[in-house]
Specification:
CATH superfamily of the largest domain: Periplasmic binding protein-like II
Low-confidence stretches: 1-12, 14-24
Helix content: 25-40%
Mean pLDDT: 93
Number of helices: 16
Distance between the termini: 56 Å
CATH architecture of the largest domain: 3-Layer(aba) Sandwich
Shape: globular
Structural class: alpha+beta
CATH class of the largest domain: Alpha Beta
Strand content: 5-15%
Amino acid sequence: MKTSAKVLLAGTCLTLGFTLCNSASAGDVTIATVNNSDMIRMQRLSKTFEEQHPDIKLKWVVLEENVLRQRLTTDIATKGGQFDVLTIGMYEASLWGAKGWLKEMNDLPASYALDDVFPSVRDGLSVDGKLFALPFYAESSITYYRKDLFQAAGLTMPERPTWTQISEFADKLTDKSKEQYGICLRGKAGWGENMALISTVANSFGARWFDEHWKPQFDQPEWKNALNFYVNVMKKDGPPGASSNGFNENLALFNSGKCAIWVDASVAGSFVTDKSQSKVADSVGFTYAPHEVTDKGSAWLYSWALAIPTSAKNDKDARAFTEWATSKEYAALVAKTDGVSNVPPGTRASTYTDEYKKAAPFANITLESLKAVTPKAPTLKPVPYVGIQLVTIPEFQQIGTNVGQQFSAALVGSTTVDAALTQAQSATERDMKRAGYPKKG
């Protein structure tokens, strides 16, 4: 298929396996973001920003999570300058900020009220006290469940369930003849997809990615117990094709009534209770993420945040948009247009008003989970790294995705749990040795 750049309107891009863009003009701000519902809402509501700033034209590149990370990593490492605003997480903010690849978010106006942002979120987006991204929303992981199904089966969800209890509930609530699955969990390979979930399961079983000397730990019994548990419960009580399911796919399954239990990001709370998109909105219960032998690292900490690369072609206008999209003003706009329960959660103390808590039944679970996380002490046994569902070292992006592919293969059945762990151990040992771990000094 032949495509001429002449058919592109000003300030647009066309994606055909690659991206074809016309040249940017002064005042253009190109924003790369993930295809999550909150970001789709941000794109829709950004017309308000453009009305307030008629000299600024926003250009959007919206991508699936794994693809977004690949594109942004390539662009920022090569100083490509394709994007003025990046949607990144705490992992990238920490590493890229330390490398000098991101603009520091300093000298924010008093109206921004940075002190209103939770300290744990600010810290996760900072390096040596310097803030390198502004949080759009923050999340922990929590358990969603169908109160109606639990009641019909005579089951009661504990406030703080164990994974063993979750498995027992899932087994009793699975009815594959009705396409009713006891549990839905991430299976799509990726360090930020299946490994985000599996890492918290492993933490709960007492596992860790590395010991104090950076030796990978996949050959230890805690990892074997955790991965066997995950694969077995998903094969027995999960939906078909689970190895293709990430956050968005499981959200769709849950909202369509096909999942009795779903453990995932707390940000989904506003979507599963939205009657316009959830068939089970009136029947959803919320509780804490499951633990097992420990609750350390059983729930993750993450923030989707907006950052400006040093290679940005229009950092001034990018800064104006980034401040607006993460401000109290934007939160008020969401509340006015889409309802208070849809305000981006987890970032600001001022969000958690009595009105918000009343409208958002998941608010207290989210808030208490965010307060309890300890990224600097994420596991039962001591570790040399920071991060609960990830390891904040440059090598983790590749290592985590490679391990995720092995574990996804075990879920499919194309390899065994033992073989997947053996492969994960040897490959990670090789990658860490090549990277020079343990580091000296």
